[in-house]
Write a structure and sequence with these properties.
By secondary structure, this protein is mainly β. It contains one helix and eleven strands. The chain has a single domain, classed as Sandwich (Immunoglobulin-like). A hairpin with a 2-residue loop joins strand 1 and strand 2. The longest helix is centred in the N-terminal third of the chain and has 19 residues. The termini are far apart. 19% of the residues are buried.
Length: 164
Amino acid sequence: MKNLLKRCFVICTVVIMILSFTATAYAQVNDMAVRTYQNEDMVGLEASPRGELISTIILELSTEGSRTVGIHSEIMCHEEMDTIKMTIKLQKRESSGWSTKNTQTFEWKKKDFPNTLLSSSVAEYKVGSLAAGEYRLSTSYVVYNLDRSMHESKTVTTVSKTIN
């Protein structure tokens, strides 16, 4: 009986030690924890700016068919905002650097959504008829708290995605 209890104690201790050493790795970029991910159909990132207002940013670029990309941008805030604004730029790698091929700006104001808690926003759309090449997203986010006494802004950029 004592041997059985000792074995159980040792096994439980080992399991606890193994679980305590499990960690998620994030890159630290400009005071943001950033996790990038990609597969053959998409590239994306999830950023945690650790700011006073902005909690999490998600940005994704996906292949949607013949020279068409899908764009998904999402922001979540720690509290309700007066204004959330995002400017999404689809950029193509050229010989001289990155050039902007499409820009979309979205803005949400509390006065337009009086019965809704404005603490997050999502924009999704597609861009087609693209020339083959390497593309990425660069997106700027600006948020203003309810009494507009404070604002915060962040810009994030995905890794590139080849469109054939």
